[in-house]
Design a protein that fits this description.
- The protein is of the alpha/beta class.
- Helix content is 51%, strand content 8%.
- It has twelve helices and six strands.
- The strands form two sheets. It has a four-stranded parallel beta sheet, sandwiched between helices.
- Helix 6 crosses helix 7, helix 7 packs parallel to helix 12 and helix 10 packs antiparallel against helix 11.
């Protein structure tokens, strides 16, 4: 029995902590999640005021920055986590905003930006929450490498959380909602862009979509069939894709 199943049964018996319930509920509603993250990316400034920056350009939330704010309900849990590790701050410009000006209305790069090593090859880039919202520089780098390999890159702006975090916490209901949204989005993106493959740079998201989704839905569920048809058979993890197409 996998750990996710065990956690879901524990949650069914004991329920989720209220903070996780709120967070996953918001994540299951994409527009609300986008608004909440954008608001929080500015609201977090008091706890990132020392602007602790690493070599990649990512800012971090440090325990020393909380002060009396660390005693507030809801903030206390975050402050407790920051005591023993530095937490990445939300980017004020997520990846979806950074690539918007670089992509055509159909979300693909122009032909002048593409080399001719792999003419006609198009990929749909799935960033995942971590890269889109926390580490957008990683997404920009992955897209740049794919372009250098001669690949046209599309970025579906409707992409959202795949549900991994909720599923790992035992929240099967919200996790399944996010999974259905992701499968529908990817099916539409593949149809519109005529992409040959889906590429993801967040390995945990790739594993969730290609392996966990098939166990999430019951036999006969249409989403299970869609998962096998448009997700599992077309995926590449970014490092593998770049290695394959760089030669």
């Amino acid at each position: 029995m996998c750990a996710a199943v065990v956690r879901s049964r524990v949650v069914e018996a004991k329920g989720l902590p209220w903070l996780k319930k709120v967070i996953f509920g918001v994540m299951a509603h994409p527009r609300l999640f986008d608004l909440a993250v954008r608001v929080f990316s500015f609201a977090q400034f008091p706890v990132t005021r020392d602007r602790s920056l690493d070599e990649s350009g990512t800012y971090y939330i440090r325990a020393r920055s909380f002060g009396i704010l660390g005693k507030l309900p809801g903030v206390r849990a975050v402050a407790r986590l920051a005591r023993w590790r530095s937490l990445p701050a939300f980017a004020t410009r997520p990846l979806r905003d950074r690539v918007k000006g670089q992509m055509s209305p159909s979300s693909s790069v122009t032909t002048s930006q593409i080399s001719t090593e792999h003419p006609g090859l198009t990929v749909c880039y799935f960033a995942g929450c971590m890269i889109d919202r926390l580490y957008p520089e990683m997404g920009e780098a992955a897209i740049q490498v794919l372009r250098a390999c001669g690949v046209q890159v599309t970025f579906p702006r409707q992409q959202r959380c795949c549900g991994l975090i909720a599923l790992n916490s035992g929240d099967r209901a919200d996790g399944a909602t996010m999974a259905r949204q992701t499968i529908t989005m990817l099916e539409q993106a593949l149809e519109e862009s005529k992409a040959d493959y889906i590429v993801g740079a967040t390995t945990s998201c790739v594993v969730t979509l290609t392996q966990d989704y098939s166990r999430l839905f019951e036999e006969g569920d249409g989403f299970r069939e869609l998962c096998g048809a448009c997700v599992a058979s077309t995926w590449y993890e970014a490092s593998g894709a770049e290695t394959r197409w760089s030669g």
